[in-house]
């Protein structure tokens, strides 16, 4: 049996990764910050035996040696998927709340695997388009070749802290492999805004994951008067992101590669239009149908060909993704 350690098992993307790992027969161990969260994951999979799905508690990913015990297992792990990283916009202390858990969390996993899990062949790190984008000077076409030029000083500006945390964490991962030359290789998955159904056992109305908050806002009538700004005009469905993580361990050629994962361009007007058309009962909570899109005519392009060619991703459409997201949010009471 092939055994996988998935960090941040209580996250939005991780929940979808768990479903794919189990469906494809992987033995799956997740890390969570508390027994309560671990138990909720097990309770949501009542028919899955404990050798197929279990959890270990890693309270603070930034602590020295945080993953040293988690990576030791019998039978031992074959692969690690590292998704745990703070993703919200409530930045109090940029270093303690974001940069440390993102960077030390990533290097901590890699160090622990090198020291204590010699059977691991690959570590897949969830990075982000945040590590690719250059908001001050967009290239004509974004691809894996681009890097966010953000500096440590920029990271202290709270509007840039999250993006910086993802950039520095991914750089630290590639640096680790180059300097330490471990027995395993790495791959990174770099998605922009991830949309898709929230997982009912993890979410309540007060804890909608960050990337679905805008759709939740539409449903609650928060943008009734005006479309919210789109900010980044790229998106991807959570099923495709989750599958990319699993394909990144299944496909040999994925080793040593960075994967920019996007279904394409969108603007908040597209989301409002899909909700209006597919959920007519919500129409009076949405901005007027003639609200103009904020997407500039000369918006950047994207090259997602590597994710299609190497990982075999067939991207969901925005309509499919928004409809599923809205249904899931209505089910948790949005
Ligand atoms: P969630 O907030 O749902 O998941 C984040 C996960 O990381 C949770 O399991 C959370 O644990 C864990 N985590 C956060 N901070 C810490 C910490 N300090 N110590 C230990 N664990 C921590 O977000 P997503 O599922 O969306 O994000 C998963 C990954 O995907 C992240 O690396 C994020 O940067 C990346 N990503 C997400 C995008 C998106 O649009 N959703 C886009 C691009 C990248 P807990 O439940 O206990 O809080």
From TrEMBL:
Gene3D superfamilies: NAD(P)-binding Rossmann-like Domain (3.40.50.720)
Keyword terms of this UniProt record: Oxidoreductase
Transport listed as a keyword: no
InterPro entries: Epimerase_deHydtase, NAD(P)-bd_dom_sf, NAD(P)_dehydrat-like
Domain NAD-dependent epimerase/dehydratase: 4-255
Gene Ontology molecular function terms on file: oxidoreductase activity, acting on the CH-OH group of donors, NAD or NADP as acceptor
Keyword Oxidoreductase carried by entry: yes
PANTHER family (alphabetical): NAD DEPENDENT EPIMERASE/DEHYDRATASE, STEROL-4-ALPHA-CARBOXYLATE 3-DEHYDROGENASE, DECARBOXYLATING
Family (UniProt): Belongs to the NAD(P)-dependent epimerase/dehydratase family. Dihydroflavonol-4-reductase subfamily.
Protein name: NAD(P)-binding protein
UniProt organism field: Aspergillus campestris (strain IBT 28561)
